[in-house]
Amino acid sequence: MLSAIACAALVGGCSQAISGTPTTFGSYSTTDVAGLPVTDGPSGPRAGVPDAELPVEGSDGGEMDRLARNAVADVSAYWAEVFPDAFGTEFQPVKRLASYDSGGAGIRLCGESTAGLANAFYCPSEDVIAWDRAELLPMLDNSFGPMAVVAVLAHEMGHAVQHRAGTATGNDPVIVLEQQADCFTGAFFRHVAEGSSEHFEVSTGPGLNQVMGVLNYIRDAPGDSGFTGANAHGSAFDRVTAFQYGFSEGPKRCAAMDVADVKQRTTQFQFWKDGQDSDLPVDAATLAAVEESLRAVFRDTGAEPPEIVTERTSCGGVPTTSPASYCPDTNTVSLDVAELQRIAQPPTTNAESSGYGDFAAYAQVASRYALSVQHAAGLSLDDEQAGLRTACLVGSWSGLLIEDPIGQRNPVGTLRVAPGDVDEGVAALLGEDSLIAADLSGDQVPTGFARVEAFRIGFQEGISPCTTKYGG
Ligand SMILES: [Zn+2]
C-alpha cells in the first residue's frame, strides 16, 4: 500500500541521479520474447502423447498425479540435456517422487508427516519431490490451469538442481535458494516455449503471462517475508524477475544468483518502515502527492509537466482511455476518479469487481504522465515502442519512491511504496486491462513478459534506458 511520509525536509531536498548501469538484456524488441516469436497459441498438456512412466509412491492413479508425473518427466529430460554443459557433470534424476493426500492420515517424508500439508516440496535428505494431489494441485489447476502445476514441479525440481549443482550453500538465505529455483523454472519454460517439451506446450503471450502470474502462489516453505528470514521467497516482482532471467539467459545466470546479486536486485529487503503503511484513498490530497512525485521524478527531463484534471475532456481524434487519458495537443492528463477508485480496491477472489490496489491505480495516472514526457522528447506515442517506454518510465517513477532505491539513488518526494505496491503493479501489468504498458490509444504491448521487463528496467536503472533501449 502506498503512503505519504510527513517529513517535509524530503520535499525537493533530494538530488536525482540516474544510474547508467548497463543492462544484461541487450536490445529490446516488441516483436519477440527473449528471442522467441510472440505466440498466442495453445498452452497446456499436448494431446495424444503417451504418459511418462516414472514411478510415483502413493499415487492414486488420478488426473493430478498424471499431470505431475508428466511434468517431472519433462523437467528431468530438460535437465539431463542442459546440466552437463551448465555444470560440468551428468544430471542424476531425483531418487523418489511421492504423491499424498493432505486430507488423509499422512505419510512420513524427511522426518515429517504430510497430514494437513497442502504443499509441494523438495527434500534433499531423501532426495524426494512430493506433492499434495488432493488440495494444492487441484486448486492450482482450477485457478490457473494445468501449467501452474507444471510450474510448481519445475520450481521444486529447481531445488533438486541447486542441490546437485552446488549453486547454493547451506548458509545462503532462503531468498537466494528461491530466486535460483524460480530462475531454473524460467529456464525450463523457455525449453517448453521452444516446443521441446514432450508433454506440454506454452505460448509466449498469454501462456507465459499465466505462468508468471502463478509464481507468487508457489510457497514451498511458507513463513516470514524479511530478506534474512528463514523462509523469504521474495516479492512477486522479484520472483517474476528471476523467472525472466532464467528464461532469457539460461541456467548459468541462475547459478550466478548469490547473496550480493539478490540483495542488489530485490525489493524484498527494502523494509517497510513502521508507521508508513496507511492506505491512501483516491482523493484530491493523494492525487496532488502523486502529481508532485511525478514532477520531481521527471523534472530533469526538461519536459513541461502536463496539467492533471479530474474531469474527462475531449481531445480531437485521440481516443479517451480509462481510467486516465493523455491529450498531446493540450498536454493534459484527464482522470476518471471513480474508475481509479475501483482499481484501487484491494484484490478479491471476485474477478469481475476486483481491483489491483492503490498503487496500481496511481501507476495508471503515471503512465499517462509518462506519455507527456515522451511527447516533449518528440517520441512516437501510438505504437508498441511507446507502450514499452511507458512501462519503463512508470517503473523508473516507482523505483524512486521506495525508501532505499536501487543503485544509490535518492528517494523523491513524499510518496513511498512498499514491495507489495510493486507487486500490485506487476499483477496489473500481467492483466489485460491496464494502461501501464499501453500507448496513447490504450493498446497494451501484447506480451506480459515484455511489459514486466520494461517496467523492471526503469525500476532498477532509472529513466535513461527507457529512451535509449526502447527506441529513442
Ligand atoms: Zn522453493
Describe what you observe in this structure.
The protein is mainly alpha-helical and 472 residues long. It has 2 domains: 3-27 and 275-468, no CATH class; 42-202 and 233-265. Helix content is 42%, strand content 9%. The protein contains 15 helices and 14 strands. The strands form 6 sheets. Strands 5-9-8 form a 3-stranded mixed beta sheet, with helices on one face. It is elongated. Bound molecules: zinc ion (ZN). Zinc ion binds at residues 155, 159, 178, 181, 220. This is Neutral zinc metallopeptidase. It holds the Pfam family Zn_peptidase. It comes from Saccharopolyspora cebuensis. InterPro entries: Uncharacterised_pept_Zn_put.
List keywords for this structure.
3-stranded mixed sheet, 9% strand, binds zinc ion, transmembrane, Uncharacterised_pept_Zn_put, membrane, transmembrane helix
Give the terminus-to-terminus CA distance.
Answer: 33 Å
Number of strands: 14
Number of domains: 2
- The radius of gyration over CA amounts to 23 Å
Q: State the major sheet.
A: 3 strands, mixed
Question: Which structural class best describes the helix and strand composition?
Answer: mainly alpha
Low-confidence stretches: 5-26, 222-231, 271-277
Attached small molecules: zinc ion
Strand content: 5-15%
How many DSSP H or I helices? 15
